[in-house]
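Can anyone check this?
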Amino acid sequence: MFRSEYADVPPVDLPIHDAVLARAAEFGDIPALIDGTDGTTLSYEQVDRFHRRVAAALAEAGVRKGDVLALHSPNTVAFPTAFYAATRAGATVTTVHPLATAQEFAKQLTDSAARWIITVSPLLDIARRAAELAGGVREIFVCDSATGHRSLIDMLATTAPEPRIDVDPAEDVAALPYSSGTTGTPKGVMLTHRQIATNLAQLHPAIPAGPGDRVLAVLPFFHIYGLTALMNAPLRQGATVVVLPRFDLEQFLGAIQNHRITALYVAPPIVLALAKHPAVAQYDLSSLKYIVSAAAPLDARLAAACSQRLGLPPVGQAYGMTELSPGTHVVPLDAMRDAPPGTVGKLIAGTEMRIVSLDDPGKDLPAGESGEILIRGPQIMKGYLGRPDATAAMIDTDGWLHTGDVGHVDEDGWLFVVDRVKELIKYKGFQVAPAELEALLLSHPDIADAAVIGRYDDDGNETPHAYVVRRPAATGLSEAEIMMYVAERVAPYKRIRHVTFIDGVPRAASGKILRRQLRESA
């Protein structure tokens, strides 16, 4: 068993809105949220006051403790206000992908039994269709304005009393994000107030922040990574969050330059852009102090190329999953220059880990040997909504969550994630990690992006199949060239046997490759 080097932190038994905004009065006029597109700014005092007024209006509209409210929006400065208002009114917030179809949205509404929706006017038609398909939705609110719908802006004028809800942080579910579905049907992940708030306290010793720090929020708030790293954590500590609705490279780089961003929390595709795209050289990114990448594997060479180009400490990584609120590992800020390349970090406070054999799950492995990563700690989810069997399959009777990820720990406690158990390709009994081959493919100067899955040949052997995005100027790049490039650099059993050229690699909003889509298309 591996244990964190940090001292344990006591459970944070506060509702998430109080855990995050407890120091709002102290931070006062410090900018809490800035719209990176038009400069609209909300101070800490305003975020605290506004979310309390909206909570009062939601309670007046009929929102009660135990209700589920669907928050369906891209990143905006109103998103945190809507989230904290809903939890203060006693609701559980299920966050919805803003690009979800009406059918996908309706499935989530039905599964979560959501009775309320907060959306934005550009997405209103989809929200209406989803509500009609699901049934049971009492009202749809909008963050901005739309005829026939109450807006959060109008709700600020309510004279209704602030709701006083008796929240049990250990039992009451604050957030109900849905797992990505990259390895199965999306499931509602029940995260209590205590689990989310305690995870923030666990992360703080390794990744401290405070007034003067400026974080750029381009990864989506609806995803647990964005919700924690870009919303809850910085607002808990008095930092300023500059909000962008989506990733557009020029807008992203302009925001770093114009708002003097100090910290980036990103996914590997953004690291790739920072390392290789020519537009990066046209912007002043000197305000940046560090970059953290998470949500998907990041190749050590790509991380080094990014940090060298920007003159920063090596890109740090973090590790976790929705079911873990989400964090378990991170490269501490004070160790970024010394961390071994490719590590996803060390255990955060109050967290334990086991590495168990893939062939004998009851066998614990020592440092240096790869196996499935098991986690135990106060941040483990309450369970999957309405799916006790799936919960039991994920969390064993001793409280260990089986991540489905494969990794090993070195003698100093640094974790290295190899791949997912279900994504490992088994070629004639040998295990091939898609992430390893993807990292190698990305090192080719004519390849812009790549993904690898297993494909069965006529003999029933599972072989590596690469999906490759050529760079615009490399239209002549051939399948044979790619296979030879890989063959010269890997053991024979890891060679790419098939190459398909595509226009873009399908990814979740977090940056994770949607291998299931590639398997289905194949």
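Reply from J.R.: I decoded it. Residues 44-61 form the longest helix (18 residues).
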